[in-house]
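Posting for a labmate who doesn't have an account.
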Amino acid sequence: MEFNKVKFRVLHLQRNNSMHQYRLGADLLKSSSVERDLDVLVDDRLTMSQQCALAAKNANGILEYIKKSVDSRSREVLLPLCTALVRPHLEHFIQFWAPQFKTDEELLERVQRRATKMVRGLEHFSYEERLTELGLFSLKKRRLREDLTNAYKYLKGGCQEDGARLFSVVSSDRTRDKRHKPKHRIFRLNMRKNFFTLRVTEDSNRLPREAVDSPSLEITKTHLDEVLCSLL
């Protein structure tokens, strides 16, 4: 099978990249500042800002369609629609492209703000009050919940084989300490601090012992919900 050389692009990462030119056979490959991988936009700085903008745009488009085509403004109608059709655009592969900047976080959160404000009777409530009334978490809390849930899978669930390559576990015999603390591997590049394996470690080590040592994923999720409900 012959490769379609027109579809190949070179994505140069890091500021000090030597920008080496690559060839496929005799043809010189063109460089690009952003490329799509598994429907996720990855730019040459790995900031994920363009992906956040695209996700917010797509989610707002679906939300506008719901607003124009659905007459009912009851929570029983809008909540299932937004959960099934809007939120997936904001959380598709989110562990990979989680926003790194507050502006990107707010861009995504603004979609859910708009969606909750559409519910009849909640128009004049604050965003936090609307979330409480609807039994929802903010998108930031949902990302944290999914980070911690995936960390549990890698450390104690069915993905431990992969987790052994991502994390090292430090044991502790202290009475008030957790039995096992995940520790990320050391990386040289500063951009790594935003990657899943680094950002989840500190949050995981803050969890209460009953959440860390839960015998099942479902029990862990219950403890996570309790912890997140107490967070501002």
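Reply:
Got it, the structure tokens are right above this. The two ends are 56 Å apart (CA to CA).
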